[in-house]
Input
Amino acid sequence: TYGNPVTGWLNLRIDKDPFTNGPLIKGKPYFISITSYALNKKALLKYNDDAKDSNYVLSRLYDIKNTGNSDVIIKGPHSIVGIVPGSNSYDPYITNGNTKHIEGASETNITYTVVNKSLTKADEYEIGFYLDSLSTVYSLYYYIKDKTTDTILSDSSKNYDNVEKYTGMVDGFTVDVPWKAPEQPEYNSLDWAIPYKNDTTGAFYIGNDIDTSKVVLLVLSQNNSDAIRANRMRRVELRFGVTSKGYRYIYKRHAYKYAEGLLNSGPGFVDLPFQAWVVDDRFGEQYQLAVGYTEDARQSSVSPPGVYDPSNDIALTKEYIIIFDSPYDPTGSNIVYTGDHNQANYSNGYNLSAAGISDSMKTIANSPFFNTMYLVGLERIDTTGTFNPTGTLVINPEYFLTEKDKYSFVPKLNITDSEAKSMFEKVNVYPNPLYAYNPLGSYEQGSKFRADDPFVTFTNLPNKVTVKIFSLSGTKLRTLEKNDTNPFLNWDLKNEDGLRVASGMYIAIVSNPKYGDKVLKFAIIMPQKQIQRY
Output
């Protein structure tokens, strides 16, 4: 598509000097050329017959040649040749402009860059997201909408700035949308719990849509949940020392099933020594969650049946805390978690066939782990005495992009008066001091400055300025004026009579009718010159 004037844009951003690896030097021309070439790939031959050798040679029978027109050096608006950083200081192209996060909880910072001002409008734009329902891994599309005209400019983009180098230009600007894939949450330690083993103990998101999700194999399911998505992760406080009611699942016949549906297994809805709460300020949510736990009926001598007590070996007791993505119900009447005939199979899922059940409830019931937001495995340090846990386990997810996030911005096309005034305060002269030779002289090809003609440059100038140059004794030597968008103005070190000034200290008064005066002091050490005629 590069031959298309609409889609054929290459966006090359250079933010450091390619020769020194340091910052770009304001006022120094940089020469950039775009060339084309043709390569006959059939001419590439293996250096030897070793299949592991990645070295190739190019036969003399073939050739690599430039194609098309002669190389062209790109030039900027204020230089004869080359691009001069800082040449549009008072009329800049905004790079990494800020957007406003108007909805959602993401910590992602989205920016925009003006690429073509002639196409950019001062309209209000919106960036929003929606889930890619066909992707197994958590993935979002984003759209760009002109809110002023109510027009969708891009409706299904995945050009994230750390995935795709070219993000696509619309209305003369590009947007930089960083993408960070969801990961496992972070969580704190508890005084009574053995340090986490990460693969068997800790807090785990077990949805199948993130690459780093961990299946706790001790719960004996080889699958992750299909009924929970990463965008449902919230900051959760698991509070010990306060009681709640929860669902109990017992390991029998290679699965974890609702206890009340098993013969001689006791109640399925039991008292638990903890509560789970969503307390998430970024989403603006606070509510209690439904909970439960798993146990192994074969280990009744280690952990009493119907009582949450993981002991010091969770591999033995298999007592995991379940935090469901569902509001707390103290009556235990959520049929998804019990089954219509108490046949709920937590680790493998089951078919829920009761009348009046919604499709979404059937989907949750059919999934391993149902819609578990987090599965928590803990082990006791001290197993003596009655188990009365205290403290709070805080589960903190990362705040990545979700379909709830929206950003808006109005492209900034011009700097403000205060920014222009601040720029005027940065008016300067360089080189200062000038030691006989200005290295930029050699760059001014075709100009009146030869390599051995010294000059100084006034920089950061607004469109209209008058520069008056004086000696230290107060004698005015030269008046320079400009009324254009070029922020640079050169002085050839000559007075009004065209005679070169002597070495010494000089004062310049830079005046602008809007921003006032700026006084500069600079030193000149003139080069030694042989006078040919006298």
Summary: The longest helix spans residues 359-366. The chain is about 5% helix and 30% strand. The longest strand covers residues 236-252.
